[in-house]
Design goal:
The protein is of the alpha/beta class. Helix content is 45%, strand content 14%.
Length: 272
């Protein structure tokens, strides 16, 4: 016959009856025992985590609103979106460099994803334009680790880093007043349609979206007109914010005009 282990607290047989081990009450103020999450039903855990995540989203919205109210209409910045894969000393690289230099000469801050390729060209051009005209413009880089953007470029005055593309896109929109789309792939298309959608539903203020390089981008806009618009999935006025041009000078002229409207409307002193 096997004997019970010493110290066992299982049921004890007393006078022919089985008596349960009495529960031990926890002293007031004593720490509660940790609960192994493996024994919590999956549905309960899911509901708890989802509730916490929704709470964090709500807090993020409140904080973002506070930041917008703090800086709204005080600074004018242009997002320059484009491919991280394009190498220096190419036509596309040199055009974006020249564009950013012209914007900085105009007193416009330049905002990119902070990576290589056309982002490097824009940040580098912005710093050169500031030196050329002695403006107070800044070169921003909002980075994310992944894909072709493994390292930030070296031409950034203000650095910000994100773990997720969604929060990075929100930051681009919160910090900028206009957008330039230069040659790029899926990431650039994501940034384009994210901006365009938010303008359409009025989640952000109206802002120009200017495409550089007609040959590269005209097919996309032609298709948007020929298919979604033709099938009444869009409205004609959704294209009011869209311009497609071929030279850095044409892009800079559109952004400069919008910049001057911004200064006049908000009574901002560009030299302040």
């Amino acid at each position: 016959m096997k004997s019970k282990k010493k110290g066992s607290r299982g049921p004890r047989k007393v006078s022919g009856r089985v008596r349960k081990t009495p529960k031990v009450k926890r002293r007031a103020g004593a720490p509660a025992k940790s609960v192994d999450s493996r024994y919590i039903p999956r549905s309960v855990r899911r509901k708890h985590l989802d509730s916490r995540l929704q709470s964090l989203y709500q807090r993020a919205v409140i904080l973002e609103k506070a930041l917008i109210d703090l800086e709204e209409n005080r600074f004018y910045r242009t997002c320059v979106f484009g491919s991280a894969r394009i190498k220096p000393d190419t036509v596309a690289y040199n055009e974006v460099y020249q564009l950013a230099r012209l914007l900085a000469c105009e007193g416009v801050d330049v905002l990119t994803g902070g990576g290589p390729g056309l982002m490097d060209a824009a940040n580098k051009g912005a710093q050169q334009g500031r030196e050329d005209k002695k403006t107070k413009t800044l070169s921003y880089g909002i980075s994310i680790r992944g894909g072709f953007e493994r390292e930030t470029n070296t031409h950034i005055d203000v650095k910000r880093h994100h773990q997720k593309f969604s929060s990075r896109l929100d930051d681009f929109m919160r910090l900028s007043q206009s957008v330039v789309i230069t040659p790029g792939g899926i990431g650039t298309l994501l940034e384009l349609f994210f901006t365009w959608q938010l303008i359409q539903v009025k989640h952000i203020s109206y802002r120009p979206i200017v495409f550089l390089n007609k040959k590269f981008w005209s097919g996309v806009i032609d298709w948007m007109r020929a298919v979604p618009l033709a099938n009444e999935l869009m409205s004609p006025h959704d294209f009011d914010c869209i311009s497609i041009v071929d030279t850095p000078e044409e892009v800079a002229a559109i952004i400069a005009a919008h910049h001057r409207e911004f200064l006049e409307k908000n009574k901002v002193n560009p030299s302040a």
